[in-house]
Design goal:
Blueprint: E1 5-6, H1 19-30, H2 50-62, E2 90-93, E3 96-98
Parallel strand pairs: 1-2
Antiparallel strand pairs: 2-3
């Protein structure tokens, strides 16, 4: 089990910072989605603030079956550190922690 915890970097700025407000925002963004979810090997979704790309991310993720194990890839926005890195940290989010 990881002993390192990564706090939310942009909660309250790019997306709502509390559990209830984030849940409400996600419900508002998902709208009407298909009942039958698609099985996919990969999905690409934007990761800007919800005001900019939340509806696209919600539509993308709302149409697919989310498997038990997910691999997230993201850019190194700062350019600091190694260009490719793996983390064993637990990521805290307003809706809970992700190991």
């Amino acid at each position: 089990m990881s002993t390192i915890t990564r706090p939310p970097a942009v909660a309250g700025r790019f997306y709502p910072g509390t559990n209830n407000s984030l849940r409400t925002s996600i419900q508002d963004l998902t709208g009407i989605l298909p009942e039958r979810k698609q099985r996919v090997l990969a999905a690409v979704s934007p990761h800007a603030g919800y005001v900019y790309s939340g509806s696209v991310a919600a539509d993308t993720l709302g149409r697919i079956e989310i498997p038990e194990t997910v691999i997230l890839l993201g850019p190194n926005h700062t350019g600091q550190g190694k260009p490719i890195a793996l983390s064993t940290a637990t990521w805290d989010m307003p809706m809970g922690s992700v190991p």
